Amino acid sequence: MSNENRRRVTEAEALGEADPGIVDQTPHNLRRKYEQNVGPVQYIPETRLDDIRLEAYYDTAYPNTHIEEQTLAAVDNAIAERVQRAAAANLDHAAKLLENEGAPKLSGPREKPNTLAKADAHLAELAAIRKALREGKVPTAELADRYERVREAMQNRDGHALVALSNKATSIKERVADPKASVSTTLSRMPLTMWRPLGIRHW
User: What is the pLDDT, as a whole number, of residue 34?
Assistant: First the structure.
């Protein structure tokens, strides 16, 4: 596996960009595949930012109060900046999801229906089949074929896409609600070699 591909796999996992509706792309499986290619990996502790703050506040000696206050403020600001960047990215992901999938519509360069539009079309087809039967229409091969097409689509590609969309929306909702926890989770999915120091003392 090339370094570029390793980076892409790791970043997809860390940023939560893997499709949560597809089993092989869950963070756990992405991590397993990554380790199969590069060997055992040490990951960034989920509490890394909290640990730095605790060390700065309680376990570090400073030559004077002024330097202590400056250092603690710098640590707090650096951590807050990372959380704010994550919050902005999460809001951007949420906005794009709402724009592309928030309502049934045509999307894409060829005006293809999005996931919700496909689901609505299937529901409308089922309603039409049910209406025909309730009005006394004798079940025919044509009705059976229409029903079978809907059933197959919802049990396979379109149904899987709907589950994936639901999982993605839930994931983004949780990240938007708690950006600090989102950053901690992201860090815990990244190899220790990808840690970017705050640039303050040894942190």
Answer: 65
